[in-house]
Design a protein that fits this description.
about 350 residues; alpha/beta; Rossmann fold; 2 domains; globular; binds zinc ion
Length: about 350
């Protein structure tokens, strides 16, 4: 099978769970595919859609590509395939959900399953999600809802509890490395390791980094961050640049890896995979910052990462995360956790 086609090796169990339920004719009517960014949730979603719309899937559940179901789906006009549109703002409108629920009650025109997709599911606010509840509680036979989320904690518990969960985790480092080396045969071993390290072993994020020449991005972030720590550039200025490229989510992940590398440097704990030149740059900062403050900063990063891609102003969020480095983390980090990051940044920065 194509290396870049789902299910990926680390999604095998999730794929089997659904296919075995299908073979027993006990397919749950709603599934929530959840897991961190870069683990291939959307690719798995597309493979599951194709599989469920196919009328003659193979023994493993893969779509045949030939039958009427597959042909209609490939042409983009399978009448039993429904996908809720996101607005430009990123939200899913309550009317879109009501319309979907109405369509799910109609008689099917084609044999097999009717598949409805809501992705990203956290784009529904509480009222929109509530509009879906009745459909989740009283499903019509043959309807399958597929929800996808990188931030399932932002979904109401009433929705999550009515879905069968397909949780995708990043693979172990060695498995991720093996897959990545196959998917990017031209990349050097050092760059494979670096991309995995900075993506938290999320293979698709790592692959994207390699395609975008991440070693150059990483070198740029490191050098500008060092300048920030030496007060050579203001956090406000840097945040405005970084939010454009490489974007808030990449920066937050990068800050997380840098912070963990600082912990390694200060304590000697953990496996050190960073290239020598990066380690040399970090050593100066490591000497100047307090270990407990780095742990607190990591807590802040975990909290802020759940907000990346949300309605929160991404530039102000990055400012709030960069300001503590200007003060070499001599900063009230405790107060940043569970506080609105945008207000926090604007209120405290002189
Ligand atoms: Zn087929």
């Amino acid at each position: 099978m194509d290396k870049l086609q789902a299910p990926f090796p680390w999604q095998r169990q999730q794929w089997l769970t659904l296919q075995q339920a299908r073979q027993r004719d006990q397919l749950a009517h709603a599934w929530l595919i959840q897991g961190p960014a870069g683990t291939g949730k959307m690719a798995l979603l597309e493979a599951l859609i194709a599989s469920l719309l196919c009328q003659r899937p193979d023994r493993d559940g893969h779509a045949c590509g030939q039958c009427r179901g597959c042909t209609l789906h490939a042409a983009g006009n399978h009448p039993e395939f429904l996908r809720v549109e996101q607005q430009e703002s990123g939200n899913i409108k309550i009317d879109s959900i009501r319309e979907l629920c109405g369509k799910l009650e109609l008689t099917r025109q084609e044999p097999g399953y009717r598949v409805a997709v809501i992705a990203p599911a956290e784009a529904m606010n509480i009222h929109t999600a509530n509009a879906l509840l009745k459909t989740l509680e009283e499903p019509e036979p043959g309807n399958v809802l597929l929800l996808v989320s990188s931030s399932p904690a932002r979904l109401p518990a009433t929705i999550r509890s009515r879905c069968q969960i397909l949780g995708i985790s990043p693979p172990a480092h060695d498995d991720a490395l093996k897959w990545l080396a196959g998917a990017a045969p031209e990349a050097s071993q050092a760059n494979l390791e670096l991309a995995l390290d900075f993506s938290g072993n999320a293979p698709l994020t790592a692959l994207q980094m390699l395609h975008e020449d991440f070693s150059a991005t990483q070198a740029r972030l490191l050098s500008e961050w060092e300048t920030l720590c030496m007060r050579g550039v203001e956090p406000v200025h840097l945040a405005a640049e970084w939010v454009k490229t490489p974007g808030a989510e990449v920066v937050i992940d990068w800050l997380m890896r840098i912070s963990m590398a600082l912990v390694h440097l200060k304590t000697g704990a953990g496996r050190q995979r960073l290239p020598d030149e990066i380690e040399a740059s970090l050593r100066n900062v490591a000497e100047a910052v307090d270990l407990n403050q780095i742990f607190l900063y990591l807590d802040v990063l975990y909290y802020y990462r759940s907000l990346a891609g949300s309605q929160v102003n991404q530039t102000l969020m990055l400012e709030a995360l960069l300001i503590p480095w200007w003060y070499k983390l001599q900063w009230p980090l405790e107060s940043m956790i569970n506080a609105d990051p945008t207000r926090r940044a604007a209120a405290i920065w002189p």
